[in-house]
Amino acid sequence: MSKGAPTLEDVARVAGVSRATVSRVVNGTRNVDPELQETVRSAIEQTGYTPNRVARSLVTRRTGTVALVISGAGGGSDVFTDPFFGRVTAGVVDFLRAQRVHPVLMLADSDHARTEVVEFLRQGSADGALLVTTHSADPLPARLVEAGVPAVLYARPGRPMPVSYVDMDHRAGGRMAADHLVAAGRTNIATISGPLDVPASQDRLAGFRDAMARHGFPYVPTAEGGFTAESGGAAMERLLAEYPDVDAVFAANDLMAQAAVYLLQAHGLRIPDDVAVIGFDDSSPALACRPQLTTVRQPVEDMAAAMAYLLLESLEKPGQRPKSVIFEPELVVRASA
Amino acid sequence: MSKGAPTLEDVARVAGVSRATVSRVVNGTRNVDPELQETVRSAIEQTGYTPNRVARSLVTRRTGTVALVISGAGGGSDVFTDPFFGRVTAGVVDFLRAQRVHPVLMLADSDHARTEVVEFLRQGSADGALLVTTHSADPLPARLVEAGVPAVLYARPGRPMPVSYVDMDHRAGGRMAADHLVAAGRTNIATISGPLDVPASQDRLAGFRDAMARHGFPYVPTAEGGFTAESGGAAMERLLAEYPDVDAVFAANDLMAQAAVYLLQAHGLRIPDDVAVIGFDDSSPALACRPQLTTVRQPVEDMAAAMAYLLLESLEKPGQRPKSVIFEPELVVRASA
DNA sequence: GAGCGCTCTTACAACGTTGTAAAAACGAAG
DNA sequence: CTTCGTTTTTACAACGTTGTAAGAGCGCTC
């Protein structure tokens, strides 16, 4: 008892049958006499048997585990305090739980770390990878595909490659922000974009600009941010210096929008009276901000769940061609615009 | 190539030696002729061999994986948006990475889920558990100890039991807040406590009250919150209704402190001029809040890393008696008090 | 009562690794 | 030229499970 855990062998001995029969009872396969089934079941009870997952994995070639990889995001482990990743994690965990699959958390913020991730998957420690990557130049997606590892990406890959992904219509999101600000009668509208090497940032900006142009505003003052609060404040500062009469700002995520709000307030400007601010994501900062942020909602949890679904599906029936699922954004109107 | 991954057998065949020799080269054991070592190494290169981790685990009885369990926290998966858990995750991941150990994320928010966690560990899917639990009545710690699973807790267990844990001197933290407010000349001081069934909440409150009493304030108006923004706002509302002349508030975490600040501002009160507010944790809301929060810093990342360290140590040499590591808080003075 | 088709059960060989005991190689010493 | 240590290598048995092919039991029919 104290040393080795009870094994199939032990249960078989107690029940007076062979290992294979016990195995079939445990796995619910047909063709076991009900009476004998009961005997086995009570023997399991009696010995306190639990199937050894590692041994099972060795023969089934499945671990019941997937890697949740957060890649590219610069500064290492502070990504976990970004509400966006928290929502991704929540969505993934929530979905996987029901399928009895467990996520192992991996950070791929260096070339060394990326190699480790690929090794980990190739070693069969996990059945596949869920990859959340921000940088479009991230080499990890390509390396995983190359290594033949089942993978699903959050966001379209930088270069086209045969891999499944979920994404959102970021252009539509940008368009919604523009439409709302123009409809509210704003005329001096600027924007704080995300990092321009991130496809999602490009799309949000492009969608915003296109819609603005359609409304008769051919040029939109733009400052590039880095999706962090600091960068958002700095970008707002630059915009304000160059365009003091700005009366509306669209920021490419809530963290930057919140920082912009605070910076504008520090300059004595009232939100939304003097300047309207729209964020993007609808994550916790949108609610924590005063005034609360009007924002373009990205259904992160649903997207994360869809990502997990696509991965499990591809594990179930391998050899299918990659799929993509695109979500629609939604404008959430609160107090800031 | 396409089907089965290369195995030790394959490498051995190519190198013209036995499996055991290859194994010894891979694991860096002594007693392999340097020349042969080179041959084997190039055979590994040539075949693209990667050791199968599952097979290895089966014989070594170690998986190189630990469970990171978030337990008790009521509402399910929205815990991941709580900056506190983000910091715990960051600290754990950061430390484990260097040891080549990977964390599996698990939520234990129901009795069913708790059983699954225990099963998971008993099945040998992970070598041990890192348990972050808030509720003192959480049955999971006891069940893990009972099952003989190596585990380390974040925070002292509700009932005494033989298990290692890391914690902070919450009383000292409460004391620091009281000292600071009194030194600033505040006289109508109230507090928003955390849930009173959480030991950490009790300690913060007790430390605060003791210090207040020592400063000549025998009674401190108290409202109980639930560590969420909503509960913090509601608690502040109650305090304000009953003690309209309050001029300082100590909240048991930053999320509630931030909500208190916003609620006071909504009532036309200025922070810190009319009311001083102190938070607890020094997590991201402390910086996001306007004015930025004065707060009692809890070194969460360090504590999480220490937790991981204790677990790995106990896996290394089993049978040691449990250990505890207690951290000291630190007052971070910003604008709110 | 031999032969046939069922259903249910059992041996046995994987899966890919590690650890151990035995064998081989090789010098050095007697 | 044996004999005895070392070192290096090998064969083989684990580890705990699953899947498959063979076997046992049993009621039929002819």
Q: Specify the overall morphology of chain A.
A: elongated
Q: What is the residue-averaged pLDDT of chain A?
A: 91
β-strand amount of chain A: 15-25%
Total helical segments of chain A:
13
Q: Just name the CATH architecture of the largest domain in chain A.
A: 3-Layer(aba) Sandwich
Measure the end-to-end span of chain A: 66 Å
The computed structural class of chain A is alpha/beta
What is the CATH superfamily label of the largest domain in chain A?
A: Response regulator
Q: How is the main sheet of chain A built?
A: 6 strands, parallel
Q: Can you tell me the residue ranges of chain A where pLDDT is under 50 for at least 5 consecutive residues?
A: none
CATH topology of the largest domain in chain A: Rossmann fold
Keywords (chains A, B): DNA-binding, Transcription, Transcription regulation
Pfam families (chains A, B): LacI (PF00356), Peripla_BP_3 (PF13377)
GO molecular function (chains A, B): DNA binding
Protein name (chains A, B): LacI family DNA-binding transcriptional regulator
What does this structure look like?
- Two copies of one chain form a homodimer.
- Chain A has 337 residues and is of the alpha/beta class.
- The first copy, chain A, folds into three domains: 8-60, 434 Repressor (Amino-terminal Domain), CATH 1.10.260; 65-167 and 301-329, Rossmann fold; 170-297, Response regulator (Rossmann fold), CATH 3.40.50.2300.
- The first copy, chain A, has helices at residues 8-15, 19-26, 34-47, 53-60, 83-98, 111-122, 140-146, 170-183, 199-214, 229-242, 254-266, 284-288, 300-316; strands at residues 65-71, 102-108, 129-133, 151-154, 164-168, 189-193, 222-224, 248-251, 276-281, 294-297, 324-327, 330-332.
- In chain A, the strands form two sheets. In chain A, strands 2-1-3-4-5-11 form a six-stranded parallel sheet, with helices on both faces. In chain A, strands 7-6-8-9-10-12 form a six-stranded mixed sheet, sandwiched between helices.
- In chain A, strand 3 (129-133), helix 7 (140-146) and strand 4 (151-154) form a beta-alpha-beta unit.
- In chain A, helix 1 (8-15) packs across helix 3 (34-47), helix 5 crosses helix 13 and helix 8 runs parallel beside helix 9.
- The longest helix of chain A has 17 residues, at 300-316.
- Chain A starts with 7 loop residues before the first helix and ends in a 5-residue tail after the last strand.
- At the A-B interface, helix 4, helix 5, strand 2, helix 6 and helix 11 of A face helix 4, helix 5, strand 2, helix 6 and helix 11 of B.
- Chain A binds a DNA duplex (30 and 30 nucleotides) through helix 2 and helix 4.
- Chains A, B: Residues 6-60 form the HTH lacI-type domain.
- Chains A, B: One of its GO terms (molecular function) is DNA binding.
